[in-house]
Design goal:
Blueprint: E1 6-11, H1 22-35, E2 39-45, H2 48-51, E3 63-67, H3 70-76, H4 78-83, E4 86-90, H5 96-104, E5 110-115, H6 118-126, E6 143-146, H7 151-158, E7 165-167, E8 186-191, H8 199-212, E9 218-221, E10 235-238, H9 246-251, E11 253-258, H10 262-267, H11 273-280, E12 285-287, H12 293-296, E13 303-304, H13 308-317, H14 320-337, H15 340-351
Parallel strand pairs: 1-2, 1-4, 2-3, 4-5, 5-6, 6-7, 8-9, 8-11, 9-10, 11-12, 12-13
Helix pairs in contact: 1-15, 8-13, 11-14
């Protein structure tokens, strides 16, 4: 067993899950790392949006600190960053470019990037339109951890200059995501913040089935949906659902819908945390189709749909026994490979062969912005 490590994360937000899917991933990973005996610190930019919607103010699994500016971060936490065995910067960190340049000259342990939005990041980097990561900075990192696996990992090295890449997919905490005693209320539900490129799929795979099946009940939970969406009368809306209520939400559905952003469908191998949460709760999943899905869920563990008719067929024709068999197979697949503890062990395994001092990076800041 490796010695306990001192690990510092800088991420979008740990304290608030409002419109922020990163929080669930960081909470599960950091909690598992703490249970393994590692010391974990999370540094978060103190911004009004998250400050007004905090649902985890005092985590018991890590030290959580806030900073207001990049200079304050580097000044107040310099010693902590210097002595850490690993410093991990996440995607979408405000002023990430400036922070990465500052950290690269300070860190003496492993310096890593954790991209929870890899296809989005690479598209923006390619256009030099990414305010949290510059192309020149990708080679600074000892390890580039990616939410997306498959061919993207090689592309990161061949096209963007990453020195080493490792998949670090999202995961589920079985202690918090499990079947509850709630009775089933909805035939099909969806949990996700509004996204313009997911909306056509939501229309086709949930809203239109709701119109065609007026005797069935549906639900959509998530924030930031435009006011001009015409919700069918049998679709219930929940504006925000904190992580503490996810298990009960999934347990109240006969099926749950998984929708993937267009860039992640194109890249493939980009599972959503909602897939793993629902499966751990014993709720059968209907998902859109994308390359690599069968690496996470065998055909016997998930339904896929490409049209309204596909969803209608599943909701109307599948037997209760087939539904429960699907749920059981998905739960077994997730609990055997995709828990937060499994991810924490993968993360530590990737770090430990290389833990130690490292030479300072010779920064090329000609294209810094």
């Amino acid at each position: 067993m490796t010695r306990p490590l001192d690990i510092v994360f800088l991420g979008l937000s740990l304290s608030s899950s409002w419109g922020n899917g990163h929080a669930t991933t960081f909470r599960g990973l950091l909690r598992a790392l703490s249970e393994l005996g590692h010391r974990v610190t999370f540094l978060e930019r103190d911004v009004p949006w998250y400050a007004h919607h905090r649902d985890l103010r005092d985590p018991d699994f890590c030290d959580l600190h806030y900073y207001e500016t990049t200079s304050e971060l580097l000044r107040n936490y310099q010693r902590q960053l210097q002595r850490a065995d690993a410093v991990v910067v996440g995607s979408f960190v405000p002023e990430g470019r400036a922070i990465i340049d500052g950290l690269a000259s300070v860190c003496t342990g492993q310096f890593c990037f954790y991209d929870i939005d890899t296809p989005v990041t690479l598209a923006r980097v390619a256009e030099d339109d990414c305010d949290y990561l510059a192309r020149r900075q990708i080679s600074y990192f000892d390890i580039y951890f990616s939410f997306t696996g498959g061919p993207t990992l090689e592309r990161l090295k061949s096209e963007f200059g990453a020195r080493r890449t490792e998949p670090l997919y999202c995961a589920v905490d079985p202690k918090r995501h499990h079947r509850t005693s709630n009775a089933i209320e909805w035939d099909l539900g969806y949990l996700g913040t509004y996204s313009a490129d997911r909306q056509p799929a939501l229309d086709a795979l949930l809203l239109e089935p709701a119109r065609r099946l007026p005797d069935r009940r549906f639900v959509v939970a998530g924030s930031q949906y435009p006011s001009d969406i015409a919700w069918p009368g049998n679709v219930e809306r929940i504006e925000h659902l904190p992580p503490s209520e996810h298990a009960a939400f999934y347990s109240r559905q006969r099926y749950t819908l998984n929708l993937t952003r267009a860039s992640m469908i194109a890249a493939g191998w980009s599972p959503s945390v909602r897939l793993f949460e629902a499966a751990a709760c014993g709720t059968p999943i209907i998902s859109d189709r994308w390359p690599g899905l069968d690496d996470f869920f065998p055909e016997s563990a998930i339904e896929t749909a490409a049209s309204t008719a596909d969803v209608e067929e599943i909701l109307s024709a599948k037997s209760e026994r087939a539904r429960l068999d699907l749920a059981r197979a998905a739960r077994e697949a997730v609990l055997s490979r995709h828990t937060a503890m499994a991810r924490a062990r993968e993360f530590i395994s990737a770090l430990t062969p290389f833990v130690g001092t490292r030479p300072a990076i010779d920064l090329d800041v000609e294209s810094a912005a």
